[in-house]
C-alpha cells in the first residue's frame, strides 16, 4: 500500500486515482497523527508526503512527520511533493532521509516512474555473489575485477540497472567510470535504445543550451540549420553526463530544470518538449565539498545521486592488476599478431607495487607501450620499467604526462585552461603565456569549446 499525506483533498484524490490506475493499492490522509497510526499498523511500502500540508507554509509540520516516519522505519521510501519555491525545503527533507522530491504541478509519468523505481529498489535485497555468479546474471564482459569492493559495486549496479534510478559515479581519473555507466545501460530495460555520452567539461557556457537541448535555424547568428540536442538523442535511452563537476552555475540551473521536470525547450522555440531518459553522471571531483564551497548546487546533487557508486583507485585493489594485465595482453596478442605474449611472474608482482596515479588507463598504456618496444614475447620488469620512466617525467619545474596517457589535443586543452585560470581569464596575458596571439587563442577556445568569461585586460 502507498500512503498519500496531503491536506488538499484534490491533490490527495488525484494522486490516489493515479496510483490505483497503475495497479497500486493507495490510501490517503490529511492528519499527521492519523498518518503515523496507518504507518505503524499497515506498514506502507512507500509514502508520498506534501511538506506544506497545513495552513502554515514553513514545512515544519511536514519535516517533523518525515523525521517520525524515518525514526519508526528508516527503510520506508518517502517521496516529497514540493513547489519550485520550496526546493530548499525539499533539500532539507532529503537530508532527513527522504528518497526523492517531485515538483508541483507534477508530471504523472515521472511520478509513477519514481514510485516504481523506489519500490523496485526495495524488492531487490542485497546478496553477496561471486564474480562467476554475477556474470551469469548480468552482462559485465568489459569490466575486469574480483576485488570485494568491485564485486559490491557490480552487485549494486546490477540491482539498480533495471530501474530508472539516477546514478552518480565518483572516482579518480582512469578508474573506469564510463565502463560502469555503459554496464548500467547494457543491463537495463533501455539497452536497445541510445546511450549518449556527453563530456560537460568540454561544453562552453554559451553553447550549453544548444548542445544539450538543440536549436532551430535562426535561433542565433550562426544557427544555419536545426540541431537535435543530446537529451532528444537520448530519449527512451540513457544519457551519460561525464565531468558534471565542471559545470558552471548557470548551466547547473538549466540542467536541474530538465532533470526535475523532464521537460525542456529547444533554443529559439517556445514549444516545450518532454524527454524520457535514464540519467547517469560521473565526476572525479568531490561534489560534497563543492556544495560546501557553494560551487555546486545542493538540489542538483540530490537529483543525480539516488544511487552513488565510489570506484576505488587501482592502488587500492592491487590483486586486480594481474587480471587487468592479462586482459590487455589477450587483446593485444590479436592486435599486434603476437600470440605468444606473456608477462614474467616477477614483472607481474612488480606491477602490483606501482602507485599508478593514472589508474587503469595508465596501466593499459604502460602495457601497450612495453609490448610495442620490446622484442621479447615474455615481458620482464626491465621492459615495463623503461616505459614507466617516460611517464610522468620531470624536467626542471615542468611535469610532462607519459607518452600515450594524453593526446596532443588533450594536452593543449589542459594548458589553455591552466593559462586562463592562472591569468584570471585575461585573454592577452593568457595568450602571451602560451606564446599565441589573441586571435589564435580565440580560435582554439572556439575549436575546443572551452568555457570562459573574458575579464578586462
From TrEMBL:
One of its GO terms (molecular function) is ATP binding. It comes from the Bacteria. Keywords: ATP-binding, Nucleotide-binding, Phosphoprotein, Transcription, Transcription regulation. CDD domains: AAA. The keyword Electron transport does not apply. InterPro entries: AAA+_ATPase (IPR003593), AAA_lid_NorR (IPR058031), CheY-like_superfamily (IPR011006), Homeodomain-like_sf (IPR009057), HTH_Fis (IPR002197), P-loop_NTPase (IPR027417), Sig_transdc_resp-reg_receiver (IPR001789), Sigma_54_int (IPR002078). The modification 4-aspartylphosphate is found at residue 50. Residues 143-372 form the Sigma-54 factor interaction domain. One of its GO terms (biological process) is regulation of DNA-templated transcription. Residues 1-119 form the Response regulatory domain. This is Sigma-54-dependent Fis family transcriptional regulator. The lineage of its organism: Bacteria, Pseudomonadati, Bacteroidota, Sphingobacteriia, Sphingobacteriales.
